[in-house]
C-alpha cells in the first residue's frame, strides 16, 4: 500500500509531460507558457511543501498525514480530470502537489518502524525502485492514456486513492513523536516555503524568461534571503522546521548533498533521453517511453538487491559505484549517440548502465534517514526528497537551456557533459564526507 501511493504521487510528476498537446487542444487559445504551468505548479509546490509535511507528520502522526495526503491527492485528481478551464487545472495540479508532498516522505517514514534496522536498506531499495519505475513509466503510461483522453491520466488515480485510504486506515499503524504536537515557528515555516518555491520557480522559468531577466534575478535573491533565514532558524531557533540535530549525522548530511547533485544529472538523463529520441530520432512519445524501459527494469533489479549488497559492501561503495555509473553512461552517450537512429547500439547500453546507477545509488542515499532518531525519520525523508526535487528542477532547467541554445545533437552533448559533471560531483561528495568522518573517529 505504501509503495502504491508513493508510486501514484511520483508518477504524476512525470506522466503529464506527454499530455500537454492534448490539454492545449481542449483549451483553445492557451499559450505554451501557460500550459507549462500544468507541470511547473506541481514541481514548485511539491518541492516547497515536502519538509513542512514531513515535520508535521512526525509531530502529529505519520499515518494521519499520509491518509490526509492521499485524500487531498485523490480529490485534486478528480478536480483536474473535470477541469472546465486551464486555470482550474493548474490549481488542481498545485493541490495535487500538496497531497503528493504529504504522501512521499510519510510513506518512507512509515516503513522504518515496521522493519528491523538491518533491513532498512532493503525496504528503502524497494521504495526507491518504485520511484524509479514511476519516473520512467510516466511517458509510456501517459502516452497510452492520452491516445484516448488526457483526462484519464488523472481519473486513474481515483480508484487507487480510494483503495489506499481504506487499506491504510485498516492496516498501517500510527507512528508519531510522543513529545507533543507543537508546530515549528512561523518564521521558519515561511522562510523554507519561500526559499524552495522561489528557487524552483526561478530555475524552471529561467530558460523562458532569460537568466539575466530582472524577474529571475529577483527570485534568486529572495530565495537566497529565505535560505539564509532558514539556516539561521535551524541553527538558533527553538522549534525550526529543519532541526540542526539532523545534520549531526554525517551520513544524512552526505546523502542530502549527494542527492541534489545526483538528481540534477538523473533529470538530464531521463528527460534528455526521451527528448532526444523524439526530437532527433523522431520517435513518438509512446515509442520514447518504451525505449526508456531498460533503465527502470534494471534499476528495480539492483534496488531489490540493495540489502544484500549493503551487507557485503556497506552503503558508501554501492552509492559510489552508482554515481560513477552515471559518468560512464554520459561518456558513452557523448561518444556513440548521433543524429542517425541507432537505439540498440548507441542508446540502449547507457540506459542499462543508468538503471544500474539508480538501483545502486538511490537506496543507500534515501536509507540515510534511518540514521536519524526514530521520531525524525519522516522529517529526514522529507529533506532528502526536497534535495532530490530541487536537483531535478535544476537538471531540467539546464537541459532546456542548453538544448534550446544549441543545435540538436550538440545541445544534447553539452547536457550529457553536465550530467557527467553532476555524477563526478556526487561521487566526490561521497568520498570527501566519508573521509571526514573517518578522520573524526
Estimated helix fraction: over 70%
Largest sheet: none
CATH fold field value of the largest domain? Growth Hormone, Chain: A
How are helices and strands ordered from N to C?
HHHHHHHHHHHHHHHHHH
Q: Which consecutive residue ranges, at least 5 long each, have pLDDT under 50?
A: 436-441
Q: State Rg.
A: 21 Å
- From the spread of the alpha carbons, the general shape counts as globular
* CATH homologous superfamily heading of the largest domain: MFS general substrate transporter like domains
* Strand percentage: under 5%
Put simply, the count of helices is 18
Distance between the termini: 40 Å
Average pLDDT over all residues: 87
Name of the top-level CATH class of the largest domain: Mainly Alpha
Domains, number? 2
Structural class: mainly alpha
Number of strands: 0
- Architecture of the largest domain, according to CATH? Up-down Bundle
Amino acid at each position: 500500500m505504501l509503495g502504491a501511493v508513493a508510486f501514484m504521487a511520483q508518477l504524476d510528476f512525470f506522466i503529464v509531460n506527454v499530455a500537454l498537446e492534448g490539454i492545449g487542444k481542449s483549451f483553445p487559445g492557451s499559450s505554451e507558457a501557460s500550459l507549462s504551468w500544468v507541470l511547473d505548479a506541481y514541481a514548485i509546490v511539491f518541492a516547497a511543501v515536502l519538509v513542512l509535511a514531513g515535520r508535521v507528520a512526525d509531530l502529529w502522526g505519520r499515518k494521519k498525514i499520509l491518509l490526509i495526503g492521499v485524500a487531498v491527492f485523490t480529490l485534486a485528481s478528480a478536480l483536474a480530470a473535470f477541469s472546465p478551464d486551464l486555470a482550474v487545472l493548474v490549481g488542481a495540479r498545485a493541490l495535487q502537489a500538496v497531497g503528493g508532498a504529504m504522501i512521499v516522505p510519510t510513506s518512507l517514514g512509515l516503513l522504518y518502524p515496521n522493519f528491523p534496522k538491518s533491513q532498512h536498506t532493503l525496504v528503502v531499495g524497494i521504495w526507491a525502485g518504485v520511484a524509479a519505475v514511476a519516473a520512467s513509466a510516466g511517458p509510456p503510461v501517459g502516452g497510452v492514456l492520452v491516445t484516448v483522453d488526457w483526462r484519464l491520466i488523472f481519473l486513474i488515480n481515483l480508484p487507487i486513492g480510494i483503495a489506499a485510504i481504506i487499506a491504510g486506515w485498516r492496516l498501517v499503524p500510527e507512528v508519531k513523536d510522543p513529545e507533543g504536537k507543537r508546530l515549528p515557528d512561523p518564521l521558519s515555516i515561511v522562510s523554507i516555503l519561500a526559499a524552495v518555491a522561489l528557487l524552483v520557480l526561478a530555475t524552471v522559468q529561467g530558460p523562458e524568461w532569460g537568466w539575466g531577466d530582472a524577474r529571475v534575478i529577483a527570485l534568486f535573491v529572495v530565495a537566497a534571503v529565505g535560505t539564509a533565514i532558514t539556516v539561521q532558524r535551524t541553527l538558533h531557533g527553538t522549534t525550526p522546521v529543519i532541526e540542526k540535530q539532523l545534520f549531526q549525522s554525517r551520513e544524512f548530511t552526505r546523502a542530502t548533498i549527494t542527492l541534489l547533485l545526483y538528481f540534477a544529472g538523473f533529470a538530464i538523463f531521463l528527460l534528455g533521453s526521451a527528448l532526444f529520441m523524439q526530437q532527433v530520432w523522431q520517435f513518438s512519445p509512446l515509442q520514447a517511453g518504451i525505449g526508456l524501459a531498460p533503465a527502470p527494469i534494471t534499476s528495480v533489479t539492483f534496488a531489490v538487491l540493495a540489502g544484500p549488497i549493503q551487507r557485503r559492501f556497506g552503503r558508501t561503495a554501492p552509492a559510489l559505484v552508482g554515481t560513477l555509473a552515471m559518468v560512464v553512461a554520459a561518456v558513452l552517450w557523448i561518444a556513440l549517440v548521433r543524429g542517425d537512429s541507432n537505439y540498440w547500439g548507441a542508446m540502449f547500453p547507457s540506459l542499462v548502465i543508468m538503471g544500474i546507477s539508480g538501483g545502486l545509488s538511490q537506496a543507500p542515499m534515501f536509507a540515510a534517514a534511518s540514521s536519524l532518531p526514530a521520531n525524525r525519520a519522516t522529517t529526514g525523508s522529507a529533506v532528502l526528497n526536497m534535495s532530490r526535487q530541487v536537483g531535478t528542477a535544476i537538471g531540467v532547467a539546464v537541459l532546456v537551456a542548453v538544448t534550446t541554445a544549441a543545435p540538436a545533437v550538440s545541445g544534447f552533448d553539452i547536457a550529457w557533459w553536465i550530467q557527467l559533471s553532476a555524477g563526478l560531483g556526487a561521487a566526490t561528495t561521497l568520498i570527501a564526507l566519508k573521509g571526514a568522518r573517518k578522520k573524526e573517529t
